[in-house]
Write a structure and sequence with these properties.
Helix content is about 35%, strand content about 10%. It is built from 13 helices and 7 strands. It has helices at about 45-55, 90-105, 135-150, 165-175, 210-215, 220-225, 230-240, 250-265, 275-290, 300-315, 330, 350-360, 380-385; strands spanning about 30-35, 70-80, 155-160, 190-195, 345-350, 390-395, 400-405. Helix 1 runs parallel beside helix 9 (about 275-290), helix 3 (about 135-150) crosses helix 4 and helix 10 crosses helix 12. The radius of gyration is 22 Å and the shape is globular. It starts with about 30 loop residues before the first strand and ends with a strand.
Length: about 400
């Protein structure tokens, strides 16, 4: 049996050639402000455990942002924004249905108060619009725009990947940014919508890396740690008189996240797992994502480098220099890729943000263990929850320029 420091090396792949991007110019100072406070969710007791371990399906928690030093000002901001809360994708819904079919046959004992909701649960997910935003997710996008309207006084330029949930998030965000009343059917125009697809050069939705798309990155590494969920499946199988497997536990956790996104309040599904079981759920999800799209993938830095090079171009007011996944036609046109003193907002997906984090070289690693959950440093829910928002502020202090990065 491996000890807690044993790395998952057996399935690591040889990295392809990496097209290096220039380092962010000298004189830019990278700061990380990660002090989060609750926003719309009461993070007490179990709720903090849920947020920490729901991974990419966690609700957004806002930042309390420190002020700037005297004499400093922000003259440019780039915001990388994930779409807000959504229903499960069609593919994920099929995995959920397999577990829900088992739970529909559960016998809930009188003493199992945390499972009592199963007696009247909706196991068919009636009315769920798979892959689309939830109503609270729509409102969250508008709230995000309203928040940045208060924070920044710069002319905006908005880009969005073309997926429906990303584009809808961008439009409702812009509605709030413009100071308009919330109206989910009145959508302002986005400056640039970039189509999604396997043959598209789109830094906000990178699907043109065939090796990553057709490979199995993260699958084997996840299998190495899936047994950590066996105690949870055994406990619930005994409690509910059904036959659950470790593979069912992430689906139960997923129902917590998606049902919370659907209602805007904590779901009864969250109570089915104990805190130590939640920790294992969070770790298993992070192992899979780390090796599929994060620092453990041989493709992640190249997949994220295109957007990083666009960020560098904005920060330095210079043309984009890139040989990866940028759209050179769009980036060479000042109408579709302007520079200068602006508020740039780019709407994207969580996987792209994970790859971009790897390309940025931020020193957050995933301590790997196959026999128990290690102390976690790379926490997915702190990076890419629903509505994740990374702000890159260009700060001017006298004759010097600095970069402040706000992650949440």
């Amino acid at each position: 049996m491996a000890d807690e420091t044993t790395p998952l090396l057996s399935r690591r792949r040889r990295a392809p050639p990496f097209y290096a991007y220039p380092a962010i110019v000298a004189g830019l100072l990278l700061l990380f402000l990660l002090a989060a406070v609750a926003s719309g969710y009461n993070l007490t007791g179990d709720e903090d455990t849920w947020v920490s371990n729901l991974g990419a399906y966690a609700p957004f928690v806002s930042l309390r942002v420190s002020g700037l030093p005297t004499g400093c000002r922000i003259d440019q901001v780039t915001v990388l924004h994930r779409h807000t809360g959504r229903y499960p994708t069609p593919g994920a819904s099929e995995r959920l249905r397999a577990t829900l079919a088992k739970l529909a046959n559960a016998t809930v004992p009188a003493h199992a108060s945390g499972a009592a909701f199963l007696r009247a649960a909706d196991f068919e997910m009636h009315g769920w619009e798979f892959g689309e935003l939830t109503d609270p997710g729509r409102r969250a996008a508008w709230d995000s725009g309203k928040d940045l309207r208060r924070r920044y006084d710069l002319p905006p330029f908005t880009r969005s990947a073309g997926g429906s949930r990303v584009l809808e998030s961008a439009r409702l965000f812009l509605q709030g940014l413009q100071g308009a009343d919330y109206d989910p059917k009145a959508w302002p125009a986005i400056d640039l919508v970039i189509p999604e697809g396997d043959d598209a050069n789109n830094t906000l939705c990178v699907h043109n890396c065939a090796a990553q798309r057709t490979g199995s990155a993260g699958v084997g590494e996840r299998a190495d740690v899936l047994h950590l969920l066996a105690p949870a499946s055994a406990r619930l199988s005994k409690l509910l008189s059904i036959d659950l497997e470790p593979e069912d536990i992430p689906n139960i956790a997923g129902m917590c996240g998606f049902d919370t996104a659907r209602t805007g309040g904590w779901s009864a599904w969250c109570h089915l797992l104990h805190p130590d079981e939640w920790e294992a759920v969070g770790y298993v999800a992070e192992v899979e994502r780390w090796y599929a799209f994060g620092g453990g993938s041989p493709y992640s830095r190249t997949m994220g480098a295109g957007w990083v090079n666009e960020l560098i171009a904005r920060l330095t007011d210079s043309p984009v220099s890139d040989n990866t996944c940028t759209n050179r036609t769009l980036d060479a046109n000042p109408k579709t890729f302007p520079l200068g003193k602006r508020l740039f907002i780019d709407f994207t997906h969580d996987n792209e943000m994970v790859a971009i984090q790897a390309a940025l070289g931020i020193k957050r690693h995933l301590p790997t263990s196959t026999d128990k959950v290690p102390e976690r440093q790379w926490v997915l829910s702190s990076l890419v929850p629903f509505g994740a928002r990374w702000s890159f502020e260009r700060v001017v202090c006298g004759k010097e320029r600095y970069l402040r990065m706000l992650v949440k």
